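Can't paste images in this forum, so I'm doing it all in text. The chain is below; anyone willing to post the predicted structure tokens underneath?
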Amino acid sequence: MHEIEAHLKQLGQRYLPSNQLLKIEVLDVDLAGQLRMSSRLGREVRILRGNADWPSIKLNYVLEADGRVLLDRQENIADMAYLQHAPRHYSNQPLPYEKQMLEDWFRQRFAAHKP
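Text version of the structure:
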């Protein structure tokens, strides 16, 4: 959750104008892939197969500008084709597919509001 919170803050700084405030409440996170126990490593590893194991995040958000509410919504964000495109900037970071999905969603939702 700390990774997701930090990433959303970075996206807000990058895409939102200074007069806008975005409040996000993350309700549910389903990471890409499935956890499986690795007998060789002795710990759980995430296996990505591209079946019904895509990343998804359910959240509530409120976008305000100058004290007025512009948007107040709940959304389910998902990337069913997450293995068909590589995470552009996040391949060497934790949660690369989730971060790419959130950036794509953020840019689609909020970049148009930037002057």
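The helical segments are 2-15, 96-110. The chain has a mean pLDDT of 89.
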